[in-house]
Please model this.
Amino acid sequence: MELIKTQTLPTRSFDHGNNGKSVHVLIGGFYWGSGDIKVKTVLGSCVSICMWNKKKKMGGLCHFSLPGRRSRKRYPLNGFYGDDAIHLFLDIIKRTSTVIDDYEVEMYGGASMFDQENDIDFLHIGQRNIESSKEKLKKLGFKIKNENCGGTFSRHVTFDLSTGLIHLRVI
Model:
């Protein structure tokens, strides 16, 4: 069950025969589904939020690069922004007639990938991504079950939509 069109939200799909299907979520991407699918992404300063509904055996992953938009004009939701990505999840929750309490939430990424000796704001984007998304999730009533954020290293995340298990590999 893929409810979000991947045409406008960057992903790449691969069918591995007996090993199931994998979907690679790129920067700004969002994927929601169920079944024998492994959703994968690679993170640096970007953050990935994973949501899993254990009762309905469905879940999704986003990969955003910026905390939010500067302008609050009415634009379509865009997975490049953390606040928009969270609203994409809220849209799915509404469309599947589920509630926030049904979901396990995990967060990954937000690494500091640049030289921190310079005190230039955009170099701290990973930390801003972490803080803004945690604040937004908490405000909406989501509880973060697990997180692996910050640091100075990249991460490879694999989310198995058949079990809800997440495998994290530090790169």
